[in-house]
Amino acid sequence: MSLKFPVLASMAIGISLLAQPALAETKSAIFAGGCFWCVEKDFDHVAGVVATTSGYSGGTLENPTYENHEGHREVVKIDFDPAKVDYATLVGIFLRSVDPTDAGGQFCDRGHAYSTAIYTTDDAEKAAAENAKADAEAALGKPVVTPVEAAGTFWPAEGYHQDYYKKNPVRYKYYRYSCGRDARVKKLWGKAAHHGIEGF
Fold first, then answer.
1. Domain boundaries of the chain, sorted by first residue
2. DSSP H helical segments within the chain, as ranges?
3. Which of these, 108, 92, 123, lies nearest to 180 by C-alpha position?
4. Is 35 a catalytic residue?
5. For residue 106, which of 161, 184, 29 has the smallest C-alpha distance?
6. Which CATH superfamily is 21-192 part of?
7. What distance in Å separates the CA atoms of residue 112 and residue 91, rounded to the nearest whole number?
8. Neighbours of 39 (CB within 10 A)
9. Which H helix or E strand runs over 74?
């Protein structure tokens, strides 16, 4: 009799675990769009996106840091639920949240580290990215210079960069406004600009 209740409790736990819905399988997209704080902010509010992580990619330097990430771009890894949003949609949103006609950086941030790029992991992603670029060129009537490159190692940025816009809202908003990011995106894309940008 003394074993009756532990056995029942064990059975109840087992049934409870079986009743839990399976966790959704997520995929990742990696985009370089200038300041990674801003890219995080723009994608955190996209339906189907479950997490964003600022980091560095595209270069050969091991363990890059904010002080030394030569050869790398600032990037954001976007984890998403493919049942709710697909990769092609995310690429389209990305291109409409940056200036993909600028090869020298983004807005007030200049140089390779702040230039745009789409990193792909397979042929399907590459095709989707190239199609999105062609669509963007047709919409803008000018060349889109954002390269599509094979994804390499993603290096997460330091902790203080993660969710910077949440941790330091005043500094973040001042930086974003003074850098002219949203003004340029709105001027370039008009009503097609990604609705996640500040004040849009």
1. 21-192
2. 4-19, 36-44, 87-95, 123-140, 164-167, 169-179, 181-189
3. 108
4. yes
5. 184
6. Peptide methionine sulphoxide reductase MsrA (3.30.1060.10)
7. 20
8. 25
9. strand 73-80
pTM of the model: 0.86
Say if residues 177 and 186 touch (Cβ distance below 8 Å).
no
5-30 pLDDT, tens per residue? Answer: 444 444 444 444 444 455 569 999 99
Cα–Cα distance, 53 to 57 (Å, whole number): 12
Residue reference for tokens 């954002």: 146
Encode pLDDT of 105-153 as tens digits.
Answer: 999 999 999 999 999 999 999 999 999 999 999 999 999 999 999 999 9
Tell me which amino acid residue 23 is: L
Pairing mode, strands 27-33 and 155-156: unpaired
How much is the mean pLDDT over the chain? 90
